[in-house]
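--- STAGE predict ---
source: upstream dedup step, 1 unique chain passed
mode: sequence only
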Amino acid sequence: MSRALPKYDRRRVTVIGGAAAVVLSGAVVAGSALAGTPGGNGGAANARTLAAPGTISCPDVASRLPAVPASAKAEVDRNLTLLQTQIQEANTRLARTVGQGGPDFVNNAILGPLKDKRASTIDRIAIAIGRTSTKPTGLDTLAACTLNTGAAADNGSGAGNGNGNGNGNGNGNGNNGQAGGNDGAQAGGATAAGTITCPDVASRLPAVPASAKAEVDRNLTLLQTQIQEANTRLARTVGQGGPDFVNNAILGPLKDKRASTIDRIAIAIGRTSTRPTGLDTLAACTLTK
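--- STAGE serialize ---
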């Protein structure tokens, strides 16, 4: 009996020890599986890209107007300037709300209100012209704007997922990597999301001769297109370059383009009237963050 008891005790210890090892192994496997689950980072990345950066583009109104009576010019110019301001404000809000809301956020919170504001402003332009001339029709179709999305990548979430899955350290490294990616994007603050704002040219023009109106309107439209293209490039180059990137690669070339376009406007007016001076001071634009 004295020899049997030690053998029984050894078997019991062996069985208990084996069972404990199995339980411990299962816990390790389960813990590893939970730690390596990529769903947490993926969900956060998707939530952050619901409202992607881009630029809001609107139909040009100035080029669609008939001859503006002199008595209505000041009011029309004031509302044309307001239309540009509305676009700039919408682009600023778009940049500041990147990653917020659901899939319809931009339409409901930015494009919808912008359309309503533009509709009222355009209607005031038509009314002003209609007081002393034929009221233009069909301008209400120009109220709606669209979002041109850029190709900016979410570098922060990419870095987070890479570290989390590659190192096999689970959510801890994944989240640290994600935060590091965000800090990196902010460190490249020379190209942080913002909106390019330019002085209005239309409101600074004298009375435009009828013979020059078509050319002046075409170049005013071109000025708007240049601003929209610069804002699109700004959104697509977020995080690129050094502290002078925006000035050298976007604002500088935009100033040169605007200077040439503004000069053509002055030349067109000067053919049959007094050529306006001082318009060259309106070429330079600024970045509003």
